[in-house]
Amino acid sequence: MALDRIAVVGAGAWGTALANVAARAGRPVTLVARTAAAAAALSATRENPRLPGIRIENEVMLAAGSEPVAAAEVILLAVPAQALRAVAAGLPKLPLDTPLIVCAKGIEQHTRRFMTEIIAEVAPTAQPAILSGPSFAAEVGRGLPAAVTLAAHHESLARALALTLAAPAFRIYHSTDVRGVEIGGAAKNVLAIAAGIVAGRGLGASAAAALTTRGFAELVRFGTAWGAQPETLMGLSGLGDLILTSSSTQSRNFSLGIALGQGAAPADGTLAEGAFTASALVALAHEKGVDMPISSAVAAVLDRRLTIDGAIEALLTRPFKAEGQ
């Protein structure tokens, strides 16, 4: 299959970083901005204000509108999870089986849909795929080493896409466990908020280690209940991304948790994906009878149903049980 011409829809930090990756992989790539004025500004400066100090590779074309998307053989949707439906629905008519790679990590809040489910609904003739793993836009955009997972329902497509997008410092492992990859990316954002709360409250490294470990146990229980493969959850898009996102202020979710732990009130308009995913994640867990106390506490704090101190007390006073439960 011909998979050379790439369009990255969404000229934010992550979209710009991925466009740089595609250019370094030697692929013709167009970064599609929201407006012609935005595309022109990026073209003039060759730098995205959201990635200061990182040059957009010369080989990256800047554009807006539907033409570069319609001409692409692979489309990366680098937009926030809650905007994915609207952006995907607004794409031009695409050739049958065009790969649409979701590069967002979340669950749609009001429908509780996973990312590739949204693609299946609004672009049913496309081939949905998802790219996820431990990666910060600033590091990827600069060309520092990173490894991620790309999943599609057909192994041949997953492998072909991985080979198309892989660059010297951007290693891509392929998978057919689409659900596992998208669950890892979504759940770890909620757990990263909890890790940030621990840091912001000054509860110590021991508490942070316990929180991350028990949070991962929640992620595995949830993923298993929804059909994910255990090895996916133990891999880059699960455990790997959780470790990264729960330990660095480059993570918006971890930073949000720090602010909450230091006494800030939950704020509307946050850019942290986990703030939108938390309630949907917990609702889906209840649907399968999965116990997720940490994620539930985060959702309750964000919804102002529980204070930080109340959440900590509730977690510390839970009944004792065997570790594997």
How does this model look, in words?
The protein is an alpha/beta fold. It is 49% helix and 13% strand. The longest helix has 23 residues, at 178-200. The radius of gyration is 19 Å and the shape is globular.
Q: How would you describe this structure in keywords?
A:
N-(1-d-carboxylethyl)-l-norvaline Dehydrogenase, domain 2, 325 residues, globular, 49% helix, eight-stranded mixed β-sheet, Rossmann fold, alpha/beta, 13% strand, 2 domains, 15 helices
CATH superfamily of the largest domain: NAD(P)-binding Rossmann-like Domain
Kindly name the structural category: alpha/beta
- Trace the largest sheet across and list its strands: 3-2-1-4-5-6-7-8
Strand content: 5-15%
By DSSP, the count of extended strands is: 8
Give the averaged pLDDT, no decimals. 95
Whole-angstrom Rg? 19 Å
* Tally of individual domains: 2
Instruction: Report the principal-axis shape.
Output: globular
| CATH architectural arrangement of the largest domain | 3-Layer(aba) Sandwich
Largest sheet: 8 strands, mixed
**Quaternary status of these chains?**
single chain
Number of distinct helices: 15
CATH topology of the largest domain, what is it called?
Answer: Rossmann fold
CATH class identity of the largest domain: Alpha Beta
Low-confidence stretches: none
N-to-C CA distance: 46 Å
Sequence of secondary-structure elements: EHEHEHEHEHEHEHEHHHHHHHH
